[in-house]
């Protein structure tokens, strides 16, 4: 794995916006504007690295399912979601409710073992840049190369499998914001596109516009049409706390959710402690515990429901850091501190995407400091190997 420099395309902004990456620029609290999309550099993998890391991601997904079953027993508490929500998640896991996608975050520098930071299994973002934007960058800049990226094709195939398995054909897709919310809206729009390519008839809706019809005893859309299958870019732990959350607890009254309720167990940071409990010393895991750091000399405290690095606390040699945010009341997981790789002051995290439990691609975000937060950069990747033959899919 190497970080190499590249010359940005003159019309790069128009190119990324044309595929839906319209949320590249953001402004820090001090007024500094930062660009999320960064094509002045790229990371290059060897094919051997890709194949090894694919196995790591797939093994980790299987291990996480075992850890979710352990969390479902209540052995590590109510996970900040309460016993009824935990029971709902367990019932969903036992029923093997189908899922679509997820993203692991790993530290990896090209040497040694990749180390798991977390599993974004319920509402993973970073999808458009990993699936589309970096693929079109590759075709424009170095089409002779391959890329670790089969995400788009894998999503279409999974939505086809989902339709075949459930017999459903109408899919509602919802997010929490509006068109101005950028990433959530565009990620949901992209998921709608791949679902339509898989043969679904789709309906877009805001989460706030989903209603409950007492006569039907069903969730309904704005036309009072019952919702049978719903993709939602909205966290389960928030849904179960809201006024309509009481209706979620009766599985027989619910639509088929994507992602399903069992993802509550995988997206919770308690998963990290459960993994270490079940697989102590595993080369791809970092020691992790609930409630206290125990014997860890350097650690990162992560709120169980935290996102985007909010409220993370780092205690390590030369580092005492606490991020702002609104999380933490639900409880904490303490994970051994793992220094991010350093490529000339750039600190990458690998986002390894899985679809139907299979590794399908990689998106890389890098930061200037020890936390990969909202103001990080997305940097494309290549594989040091020839591009696949015409008609083949990049892996």
From TrEMBL:
Key words of the record: ATP-binding, Ligase, Magnesium, Metal-binding, Nucleotide-binding
Keyword Signal: no
InterPro entries named in the record: GSPS_pre-ATP-grasp-like_dom (IPR005494), PreATP-grasp_dom_sf (IPR016185)
Keyword Nucleotide-binding: yes
Every Glutathionylspermidine synthase pre-ATP-grasp-like domain range: 12-383
Pfam families hit by this protein: GSP_synth (PF03738)
Protein known as: Glutathionylspermidine synthase family protein
Species: Arthrobacter horti
Organismal lineage: Bacteria, Bacillati, Actinomycetota, Actinomycetes, Micrococcales
């Amino acid at each position: 794995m190497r970080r190499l420099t590249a010359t940005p395309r003159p019309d790069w902004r128009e190119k990324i916006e044309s595929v839906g990456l319209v949320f590249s620029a953001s402004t820090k609290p001090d007024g500094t504007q930062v660009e999320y999309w960064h094509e002045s550099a790229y990371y290059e993998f060897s094919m051997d690295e890709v194949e090894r890391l694919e196995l790591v991601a797939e093994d980790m997904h299987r291990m996480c399912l075992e850890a979710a079953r352990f969390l479902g027993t209540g052995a590590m508490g109510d996970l900040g979601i309460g016993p009824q929500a935990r029971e709902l998640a367990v019932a969903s896991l036992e029923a093997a409710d189908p899922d679509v996608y997820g993203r692991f975050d790993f530290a990896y520098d090209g040497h040694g073992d990749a180390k798991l930071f977390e599993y974004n299994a319920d509402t993973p973002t970073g999808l458009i840049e990993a699936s589309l934007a970096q693929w079109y960058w590759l075709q424009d800049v170095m089409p002779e190369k391959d890329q670790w990226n089969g995400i788009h094709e894998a999503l279409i195939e999974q939505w086809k499998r989902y339709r075949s398995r459930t017999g459903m054909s109408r899919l509602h897709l919802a997010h929490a914001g509006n068109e101005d919310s950028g990433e959530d809206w565009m990620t949901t729009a992209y998921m709608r596109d791949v679902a339509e390519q898989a043969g679904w008839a789709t309906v877009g809706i805001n989460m706030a516009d989903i209603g409950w019809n007492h006569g039907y005893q069903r969730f309904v859309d704005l036309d009072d049409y019952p919702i049978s299958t719903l993709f939602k870019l909205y966290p389960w732990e928030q849904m179960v706390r809201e006024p309509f959350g009481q209706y979620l607890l009766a599985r027989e009254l619910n639509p088929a959710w994507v992602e399903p309720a069992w993802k509550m167990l995988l997206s919770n940071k308690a998963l990290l402690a459960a993994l270490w409990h079940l697989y102590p010393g595993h080369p791809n895991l970092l020691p992790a515990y609930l409630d206290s750091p125990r014997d860890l000399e350097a650690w990162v405290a992560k709120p169980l429901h935290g996102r985007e690095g909010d409220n993370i606390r780092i205690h390590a040699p030369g580092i005492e850091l606490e991020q702002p945010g609104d999380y933490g009341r639900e409880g904490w997981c303490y994970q051994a501190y793992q220094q991010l790789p350093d490529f000339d002051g750039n600190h990458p995290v690998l986002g390894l995407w899985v679809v139907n439990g299979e590794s399908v691609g990689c998106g890389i975000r890098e930061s200037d400091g020890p936390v990969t937060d909202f103001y990080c950069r997305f940097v494309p990747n290549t594989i040091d190997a020839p591009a696949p033959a015409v008609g083949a899919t990049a892996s």
